[in-house]
Every structure is written in structure tokens, then in C-alpha cells.
Amino acid sequence: MSGIDASMRARRIGGRAIAHRRSDAYLWVNPFLRPSASGPRTPPLPAPTERERIMSDTMPARREKVIKSDAAWKAELTPEQYRVTRRAGTERAFTGPFWDETRAGLYACICCGEPLFRSETKFNAGCGWPSFFTPVEEEVIDEHDDTSFLMHRTEVRCARCDAHLGHVFPDGPPPTGLRYCINGTALTFFPDED
Ligand SMILES: [Zn+2]
What we know:
It comes from Pseudoxanthobacter soli DSM 19599. The protein has helices spanning 3-12, 14-29, 48-58, 70-76, 79-86, and strands at 105-109, 115-118, 122-123, 131-132, 141-146, 153-158, 164-169, 179-182, 187-191. With 194 residues, it is an alpha+beta fold. The protein has 2 domains: 3-63, no CATH class; 70-191, Beta Complex (Metal Binding Protein, Guanine Nucleotide Exchange Factor, Chain A). The strands form 2 sheets. The protein has a 6-stranded antiparallel sheet with strand order 3-4-8-7-6-5. Bound molecules: zinc ion. Zinc ion (ZN) binds at residues 109, 111-112, 114, 158, 160-161, 163. Zinc ion is lined by residues 109, 111-112, 114, 158, 160-161, 163.
């Protein structure tokens, strides 16, 4: 029988092909399940609460967006944090937090606590703002075109809560060549424990 004949035959006996797929899926889900005539063919799924607990242990909570009213943000943040993060403000250079921070640790969003940058990717750009060549993961940052002040820049925001963080420029160091120029006011810092 030629190869073409074989494939046509497989299509004609579609019922059997489906049966094979079910069998494969069963093996893939749990190859170590002991054969049992009376037992369940597939492992039971954990209850939703258990699944949620496992997911919260293994996945960052950032999958959930943080959406709050303007009034709620205003009540939670200092006036400067509110102006920078919710009104796309910019702190004056060399006046905000962390531009000269050199300790090892994690920088997170001041609004929602999302981990954004690591100290290993921070560098001294001499500009008076904390500068990083990459975020901890691409997904934690949203980029937006910013044409204010007669310039064309790329604004960066926290992907989880939409906080304005700063801008990204193509004049950073290797390995990315990017410079995430971030308002320290938009960040909170967690030093590594020794
Ligand atoms: Zn955030």
C-alpha cells in the first residue's frame, strides 16, 4: 500500500482515529496512572480554590489588572506619586528616589506592587533618574507613543495598573541597547536579604 492510500484510509476510518487521539490524550495527561478497571480514567481536577492557590504560588499576581478610580488613586498615593503615575508627570532630575541607589534588590510599581526592574539591570546614565536596560519581563511594561512637548518618545507604563513610569530610549548599554528612564517616584524598592 502506498503512502497516499494509507492516509486516505486513515481519513475514511475517522471514528478509529478519534479513538486513538483520546487514548493519546489520556496517556499524555497522566502516564503514571495505575491501570484500574474501576478507577477513574483521568485524574480529578483540583477544586477551583485549590487551583487558584497553586496558581498564586507559582504565577505572579500580575495576570489580574488593577483598576481603580481616580479618587481611589488620589487617596492612596502621595501628591507627587499621584502626579507622576496617574497624571504622567515627571520628577525633577536628581531629586526623586533611587536615582543613586546602588544596593541589590527589586524595584516594583509604587501603585500596584508589580515587580518591574532588578538592580542588576540598573546603570548610571548620568541623567538623574533611575535607568535600566531591561525590565524583569517584557510583559510587565506597556509602551505608548508620546508626542507631547514637540517630541516623539516612547512612554512606558506598568502593564498591570497603567501607572506612568517614564520613557524608553534607544541609547542604552548592551545587551539591549535600551534605556528605561524611570521616575523613582513611580517605584518602590525591596533590597535583597543577605
Ligand atoms: Zn502598577
